Amino acid sequence: xxxxxxxxxxxxxxxxxxxEPVAGLPADFRWGVATSSYQIEGAVDEDGRTxxxxxxxxxxxxxxxxxxxxxxxCDHYHRMPQDVELIASLGVDTYRFSLAWPxxxxxxxxxxxxRGIAFYDRLVDELLxxxxxxxxxxxxxxxxxxxxxxxxxPERDTAYxxxxxxxxxxxxxxxxxxxxxxxNEPWCSAxxxxxxxxxxxxxxxxGDSMRAVHHLLxxxxxxxxxxxxxxxxxxxLGITLNLGTATPASDSEADRAAARxxxxxxxxxxxxxxxxxxxxxDVVEDLAARGVTLPVEDGDLKAISTPLDVLGxxxxxxxxxxxxxxxxxxxGEDGLPVTRVVPQxxxxxxxxxxxxxxxxTELLVRLQEDxxxxxxxxxxGAAFDDEPPADGAVHDADRTAxxxxxxxxxxxxxxxxxxxxxxxxxxxxxNFEWAYGYAKRFGLVHVDYGTQRRTVKDSGxxxxxxxxxxxxxxxxxxxxxxxxxxxxxx
Length: 490
Prior knowledge:
Strand content: 5-15%
CATH architecture: Alpha-Beta Barrel
Number of strands: 13
Family: Belongs to the glycosyl hydrolase 1 family.
Catalytic activity: Hydrolysis of terminal, non-reducing beta-D-glucosyl residues with release of beta-D-glucose
CATH topology: TIM Barrel
Order of helices and strands: EHHHEHHEHHEHHEEHHHEEEHEHEEEHH
Protein name: Beta-glucosidase
Strand order of the largest sheet: 1-2-3-4-5-7-10-11
Number of domains: 1
Largest sheet: 8 strands, parallel, barrel
Oligomer: single chain
Distance between the termini: 33 Å
CATH superfamily: Glycosidases
Number of helices: 16
CATH class: Alpha Beta
Shape: globular
GO biological process, one term: cellulose catabolic process
EC number: 3.2.1.21
């Protein structure tokens, strides 16, 4: 993977599906694309970076499809200027990316690493030079391996180490970066990593996973306090959660209880302490019945509920739940009540996730009613089995339709009163998709992993044109032009 190519600039929409303005989205609505460090950067042992839990996990036989890893990924570390050119060509005003903790602070302790920080210095400056707002995520799952060796997120000390790292990163970039997200999808870190074992670090202990939930949230709160107290405090400080909907399959008591449990473990376990400063009583009781107590100490919930400016929402699907197994039983082999996902009979992505855009509207309205925070869609997108580029084009009408339906769902939520302020497509480009290796492609841009050539897909062209048309229509409706970031990038 050594060939270097310039980022292609879309110049024609001849092969792009028709784009239309999306009614109901204002001129100052944010449009972006998103990535994460381990999925695109590569260069895992350059300039002082030390291993993360994903570097280690990828070496476990059978852990990742095809035995693949992020050693090179999209080689973004070496191709960053071209990739920023590519981002600019899509007409977005915001780029959400994550910092690699073991690149910023090797080993997870001590001083910052000037060589690693320098990469993000250059990235931020390149973005700003292009009129693109950098939106930084501090943690997108790449915990330094040394901290996992010391116990990882189930240990309280990791929360304090995270706050130290956050302060180092903010000291380096906070003079230019004004939009900060602490954690990406703590549910995935805790449950997939420490309970189900399908993500790094690959552990399987339910009690550890619930302790990880609390310490992830505590780390968020401690880091948020540090950033609030720093010079150049963030204009927007938030956390990103992966959220869906939990609808009972019927009005039966068993189905309603199953939906309550799913909603409690997937949504309220995180948002109730973040916003209301308390864990939900029913979830605490359910955990106690399993012999698990959250390791809450005095002052923890006050820290966790440090005020947020924005809630990042990653949405991919919504679910219907039954409390009865297919054989009619209500208790599983583990002795726990059945919480079964019921198929809704809808088309599915290559990840086998049902496509239900109306659930996004439902979710955003619920979040507004129950938690009252401004929201930004920090990830939404779909993997499909794209054909390789032919004649310089990738025709991915299914992805374009997915994006169109979900952007309209966001507009519908705004019309219903939800304060949704932006939409970031996942992902900028095809990349390392965790335990799936390189088998699943989410990108608006196709990546040939053998040559590292980038090709904008039809969905990327459609997204660019939709942004432009929507901004133009919103500017006319408001009697003026888009301003600030939007005008600069458009």
